[in-house]
């Protein structure tokens, strides 16, 4: 046999084997234990990146399984377009108070201008279902500062423009009204209750077409690890169900529903 062809065939066999060995080695620590995905996500940016790759439903299930708490917002909290975002909560609270004070909402604007990349703007308007908590101007400022998105326990307006610039907003409804002269800034980066869910500054907000979930920052690593495990099982089940044409057998094998 031609020596060149023989060597070529040998390398075709060896190269895939070397790749497999390299991947296997990278998945094991010196102690011989499998490296957990959450061990590499202590960096805030890496943590958010990892959360972007898991389903919000799995995050919700993981929190409930680990703590017994339901940290998802209601079916009323919907996006203005299909999207997904993850960010660290920057909270703002407005209280209902008729006024003629031109400075009544200045603190709200300052909170936006002081926000950083990957912030998730979480605003609560007291009794504000029919009041727009934000619109195109605030959305433009958040997008310019690279916020991840916004969650408004109240309404939103200028939806056409927000869709145009592609800034993700979840709200309790779309309304043309304004908060000016009707509300007063009551605080930022404080604990709030947004659509029934406790949110603290720095908590992780995850949102997709299934809804919005808040992950307490102290639990972020263990919630992520369990959500990743749940995602892996669920995604593995699709082909298994198609092959066996049985969801019962898939649940028996993977223990996930």
CATH topology of the domain at 72-215: Glucose Oxidase, domain 1
- Structural class, judged by helices and strands? alpha/beta
Unreliable spans are: 3-38
Number of strands: 11
> Considering DSSP H and I runs of 4 or more, what fraction of the residues is helical?
25-40%
Could you report the average pLDDT, rounded to the nearest whole number? 84
CATH class type of the domain at 72-215: Alpha Beta
- Largest beta-sheet details: 9 strands, mixed
SSE succession: HHHEEHEEHEHEEEEEEHH
Specify Rg, calculated over alpha carbons: 23 Å
Strand content: 15-25%
Gross morphology = elongated
The count of helical stretches stands at 8
Q: Find the CATH superfamily of the domain at 72-215.
A: Ribonuclease E inhibitor RraA/RraA-like
Taking the alpha carbons of the first and last residues, their distance comes to 56 Å
Quaternary: single chain
The second-level CATH architecture of the domain at 72-215 is 3-Layer(bba) Sandwich
